[in-house]
Design brief:
The chain is α+β, with helices and mostly antiparallel strands. The protein is built from six helices and seven strands. It has helices at residues 2-31, 36-49, 110-121, 146-154, 162-168, 173-178, and strands spanning 54-58, 71-75, 82-89, 94-96, 124-131, 140-145, 159-161. The strands form two sheets. Strands 1-2-3-5-6 form a five-stranded mixed beta sheet. The protein has a two-stranded antiparallel sheet with strand order 4-7. Helix 3 crosses helix 4. The termini are far apart. Residues 1-33 have low confidence and may be disordered.
Length: 180
Amino acid sequence: MHHRIRLIVVMAVTWLDIYERKRFNRTEVIDIGFGENIVVNKLNTYYQRNNIQAYAYRNLQAKFREQPTDICVDSRTNKRFMAIEVKSKRNKKALNFKSDFTINKDNVHQLERQVEFSRLTGRVPFIVLYCRQGRGKKVLIYVFDSKVLLKKMKAGDKSILAREFDEYNIKNELWRIVNK
């Protein structure tokens, strides 16, 4: 009987070990440079190293609470007072306004919510797009002005195609920080 219990415990520990390794590997992939946490860490590190009075933080998601934007940056200067939405894609085909963004229960598009939030708070709205090209290949990062994307969407465009990414990419301070 004791051998049977020991076997079950060993199997459970092995299963937990495999689960932890999978979870750790997933975390490792995120640490390479994807996700809101990395953008926040890069921004705060940059601000600390350069003695800039600014602070970036994540707006945590909750199941029944609407999140206006992924990251907020508080600063005394307007150019660093930002609202940032982070999008991550596995390929560099297009940024689709319907499938890559959400629409809330009131039928308001995520870009509209972010731009309105930015207008109310005085922040500058940005979209940071990570394009993962595959294992071992360079990650391409783009920074878009949310207001420009919203105008393009309201003009009837369904997406921004990959060939247009460079045209809309803003190579500002934010772009330089997230590309380090």
